[in-house]
Specification:
- With 336 residues, this protein is α/β, with parallel strands linked by helices.
- It has 2 domains: 150 residues, 2-Layer Sandwich (Nucleotidyltransferase, domain 5), CATH 3.30.420.40; 169 residues, Nucleotidyltransferase, domain 5, CATH 3.30.420.40.
- It is built from 10 helices and 10 strands.
- The protein has a 5-stranded mixed beta sheet with strand order 3-2-1-4-5, with helices on both faces. Strands 8-7-6-9-10 form a 5-stranded mixed beta sheet, with helices on both faces.
- Helix 4 packs across helix 10, helix 5 runs antiparallel to helix 8 and helix 8 runs parallel beside helix 9.
- The longest helix has 27 residues.
- The radius of gyration is 20 Å and the shape is globular.
């Protein structure tokens, strides 16, 4: 089975052909990081325009690299939610036209489910059920993966996501966009105990997250130090931020797995590329006796392979769409 996956939820235009759910035949990503860097973040209108310019070439190269034609495909999968609405619409519109013109089934894919599926590509032995922590710039979710297409959210952020916290703290420290990777790099030379940072708790929701207070505390710390002429050690502050976020994500995930009786834990999303999060959660799982899975770093960010992978399982489950498929900026993971 060959499935083409198309991803355009933010600032990467990506396409991939995946064989039999888990084998990557091709993966092409056109990133816009350098263009958005001058604005300190993604500009939705620019992102949408670039998707329009890039998507045909990206999809064509994905097919060429896989040495397949449209006729060889079994289905066309596309991210339809959540994300930047203009960016999503480019991918959805293109995929609908491609599916209609080629007579291939159209398969809708939830972006978060796609991130979860990146683990299937890295770990062929992984099968549901298991618990997954999805952490990215827009999401921080603890999710029960009940089957390849059935999910239940047991914890989520009430405000900022972990990746957003990383990026906004990085901006306050003067790091360029995207900031998370610069915090990670600086943290390698810093002392994670140099700063005592808050760990907000959501009353009555033990598995929910809140990173807004941590972000605000760091920004205020930086501004107050600047006003007093105090030079903060960026490496130490980066290490402290990374250590705090990693421990918050880890502690709640471990607690949820213990409470719900899971033996397998997976990590997914853009923040899964962070070295501190990877090592902290991996060590905690080893210590508590959980099997641990995380995607290869090349699959942590937005990519077409994860969409093709999840799209393959959706297709096998009979989840398809017609020409009325629309994009949605927000949508629960269990709505597809």
């Amino acid at each position: 089975m060959l499935v083409l996956g198309i991803e355009s939820s933010c600032d990467e235009t990506a396409a991939s052909v995946v064989k039999d759910c888990r084998t990557i035949c091709s993966s092409v990503i056109s990133t816009q990081i350098e263009e958005h860097k001058k604005y300190g973040g993604v500009v939705p209108e620019i992102a949408s325009r670039r998707h329009c310019e890039n998507i045909l070439g990206v999809v064509r190269k994905a097919l060429d690299d896989a040495a397949v034609s449209l006729a060889d495909l079994d289905a066309v999968a596309v991210t339809c939610a959540p994300g930047l609405i203009g960016a999503l619409l480019v991918g959805v519109s293109f995929a609908k036209a491609l599916a209609l013109s080629s007579g291939k089934p159209l398969v809708p894919v939830h972006h978060i489910a796609g991130h979860i599926a990146s683990n299937y590509i890295t770990h062929p032995e992984l099968e549901p059920p298991y618990l997954c922590i999805v952490a990215s710039g827009g999401h921080s979710h603890i999710i029960e993966v009940l089957s390849y297409t059935k999910f239940r959210i047991v914890g989520r952020t009430r405000d900022d996501a972990a990746g957003e916290c990383f990026d906004k703290c990085a901006r306050a420290m003067g790091f360029p966009y995207p900031g998370g990777v610069h915090v990670d790099n600086a943290a390698q030379s810093g002392d994670p105990t140099a700063f005592r940072l808050p760990r907000p708790v959501v009353a009555g929701s033990e598995f929910d997250f809140s990173f807004s207070g941590l972000k605000t505390n760091v920004i205020n710390l930086i501004h107050n130090s600047e006003q007093k002429g105090i030079v903060l050690n960026k490496n130490d502050l980066s290490a402290s931020i990374q250590h705090t976020i990693a421990e918050i994500l880890t502690e709640k995930t471990i607690s949820a797995a213990q409470a719900l009786g899971y033996e397998k834990i997976a990590l997914a999303g853009g923040v899964s590329a962070n070295s501190g999060v990877r090592s902290t959660l991996s060590e905690a799982c080893r210590r508590h006796g959980f099997e641990f899975f995380m995607p290869d770093k090349s699959l942590c960010g937005d990519n077409g392979a994860m969409i093709a992978c999840q799209g393959s399982y959706n297709f096998l489950a009979g989840i398809t769409a017609d020409e009325t498929l629309n994009a949605a900026a927000t949508l629960p993971i269990d709505s597809i």
